[in-house]
């Protein structure tokens, strides 16, 4: 053989490249590549993302509130044009059937993008609340979203969306594909592999997105076809890849194969070469030389020992179970798990004590998820079925400014409510306990708008109307980024849109109760607005709605603010701890809006939709109407003191600390109308 032949040298070089790189990555052109599985693939991975031994790319696993990123290791040049084509195969395998952990996004972003600041949950590991929507993001994402987030304008919990610089899609469609002109729906969290094709043609400024089950030909008709000019989005050099996130519920998110091209249509993936999705394997109980009789004896022995241990510990972890609870099984935690997560409800894990019980910090050992567990006394004989049904419904609420209610547990005379843990505690601790550093005005104003957005969602945007009935600073918790999240749904009441609520018992906290509520006992969205008005004045003024140790004129916060407003010096009511460092326009707006929401007439109070319009500058707030008599227009008459047995509150009746936690309920939350 003539080894000096140039053609032979070329052949040997090609064979050597294929031997060194079985994925074919070494032979990729600068702006195109194909991965039929990801063994030895050159990818930049972070978060939970990893390549499994068989070449399967796993973006996230069943860990809660986690992110995974996988980007091609080399930047893609778009200097010669913006057109591109890509296809990939993915699979979403939920931890719990039919309940998933957010989704996957194919993303194109600048190479220097720092995703360490991105949030989990609905932000898909791409953005956070502060940078969502910024033009400087230069982000194009095709989202495969499995959670309905109304704050982003989502159409449902199973859709494909096109995102530009923000998580609110400019175009979206429920997941489906066209097979012989028939629209066939798909379920993203089915656990089955699916293929996505994304094509952008610069000459027509047109983005096409298709999806179909793996093994199906590329549909002729796109699921999404959207005219888009990407010239302001895509820079000369960009990175391409995938991002995924989980939330309170997690999913395994996999990519099986991926092809990308800047020079025409992406190469077709070879299905036979793609890795398989992991399956649960049955354990092999037999080993060489072990007789069947020995296995039976061993199993019986294990059962016997287990039975003895169970009998000894049964009382320690004994719970209350009834047949009707089966339908709420996914919302129920075992007492054993909660007991262990809180180290036996030790005082060292105590987060706080309120009018309805103690709250403990816990960590679910299996998932390392941090939780808050509230222990509430209850009478299991009355109202429990309805109460648990409402817990299950509230557990389906999804909003970035709500504390997620994860579920419940019942044991003897206790009800345990399980929430997401908020690391910065409750808002009132920073407002009233003067911890350093305190909250500046920008942080307070963001919290106000966040809580207002959450209340609008509860009142108008969810499938039912949710009355919170206990809005106050101590029930607003702060997450790691000091965003306000409305929590404690222990008093919440649900009813259908267009119906009338049937609450007839007064519940809530003194200082936040609308005057008509104290007379009729009937809670409405308007009584929630009244409590929100007290909440606004709390934040702006840095004091509680009632200060029984103050002068008679300063007993009610709303009266003090009203007097300042009458005198034309309303800004003097602002919290002195702010040192005058605030936006006068925003402070004046919040103080006046607090007065308007606290009006004694329900008809004069705005809806939460109007409140958000005022706060966002999308509408002008009407002038606050003053009562010429100067008494009784806002809140209630001082002489009547809310028409409660605690009437005429003063320093010689109750201490301020007692007033701050005083709560008016009937004998039990779970008796009658709660």
From TrEMBL:
Write the record's keywords in alphabetical order, separated by commas: ATP-binding, Cell membrane, Glycoprotein, Kinase, Lectin, Membrane, Nucleotide-binding, Receptor, Serine/threonine-protein kinase, Signal, Transferase, Transmembrane, Transmembrane helix
Natural source organism: Thlaspi arvense (Field penny-cress)
State whether keyword Nuclease applies.
no
Which residue windows are transmembrane per the record? 290-312
Give the enzyme class.
transferase
Q: How does it sit in the membrane?
A: Single-pass type I membrane protein
**UniProt superkingdom:** Eukaryota
What is the name of this protein?
Answer: non-specific serine/threonine protein kinase
What's its EC? 2.7.11.1
Q: Where in the cell is it found?
A: Cell membrane
